[in-house]
Amino acid sequence: MKGIVFTGSRTLAMQDFPDPTPGPDDVVMRMKASGMCGSDLKFYRSAPGEAQRALGLGDTEPKIAGHEPCGEVVAVGANVSARQAWLGQRAMVHHYRGCGVCPHCSTGWMQLCVDGVAEVYGVTGHGGHAQYIKVPAKTLVTLRDELSYETGAAIACGTGTAWGALKRLELTGDQTLAVFGQGPVGLSATQLAAAMGARVIALDVSPQRLARAKEFGAAEVINPAQVDVLKAIKELTHGLGAHASIDASSSPQARRQAVQCVRTWGKACFVGEGGNVDLDVSPDLLRRQVTLIGSWTFSTHGQKECNDFVADRGIDVDRLFTHRWNLEQADEAYKLFDQQTEGKGVFLMN
Predict the structure, then answer these.
(1) What is the dihedral of CA 69, 43, 211, 156, to 10 degrees?
(2) Which 8-state DSSP code applies to residue 238?
(3) SS3 99
(4) What is the pLDDT of residues 22-67, one digit of tens each?
(5) How much of the chain, in percent, has pLDDT values that exceed 70?
(6) Taking a C-beta distance cutoff of 8 angstroms, is the pair 139, 95 a contact?
(7) Residue 308, Cβ neighbours under 10 Å: how many?
(8) How remote is the C-alpha of 60 from its chain's centroid?
(9) Distances in whole angstroms, Cα of residue 16 to Cα of each of 160, 317, 329
(10) Under a CB-based contact definition with an 8 Å cutoff, are residues 149 and 33 in contact?
(11) SS3 38
């Protein structure tokens, strides 16, 4: 089979790999859609193995990229029960493998494995930018029949990450949420929060992304390059501030404002990876009883809940994708994605 490998310094290659066969506890899935995620860019831009080592994941051989896999099960291992997986199953992959038995793995949080994550698909294990993927059956989450494979790919990371943050915030429909950054994760948060009934204030320095945020349900949009963010949010919330906020930008300034913009007893959630933030602890946190939350992706149970919410509410997640590619177009796709001026891309397979 063919698979896309990041070869370092903004280069990639399509390489040949043996068709996978399942081990006793594994399945093989024919890929139908594999999303492009912002965190892919760390590995696309860096020297071979550099980003993996920086994350403590070891000096690994090049692996097939892509950690938003969605497809159809075409082979199952001897130990896989019919309740775990079956031929023809439409499924997403929870893109981590842990020990499987520790307190975190056993509750669906394999990325928090006590022994350390054994594999991250698309990083230290072969990912979804290929014709097939082999994964443990326990990593599968069934995709609802009402949803496209593209939507499943989005839920498999970006949209699922937004869902995980909203659940950590315990957002309710009578609250106002400020979402900093309207890339794929931030835009997903805007779309899902609006579907929950919340009033969303979307922030981004890109007029194009703000326009999309309005289309996805934002009640108000703010360009931080043009206005005083904290003043604008207070004016929109009767001087109190937002009930909750999400930073999906990783910008130090946006992170600080995400904390400062919430009202007393408010909650701020960071989902953007990497970088730092500088806070004045007493006025920003302590003396306003503010809760600061770090949210890293989601559990298998959260992935299923997001899948059900999207299907039950008829949410058009496919609209997140502005570009659709085949694997042969991977070089063009990542060169465009690297500019971070466009929306979300996805590879589609026959």
Answers:
(1) 20
(2) T
(3) coil
(4) 999 999 999 999 999 999 998 999 887 675 565 565 656 789 999 9
(5) 97
(6) yes
(7) 12
(8) 23
(9) 31, 32, 16
(10) yes
(11) coil
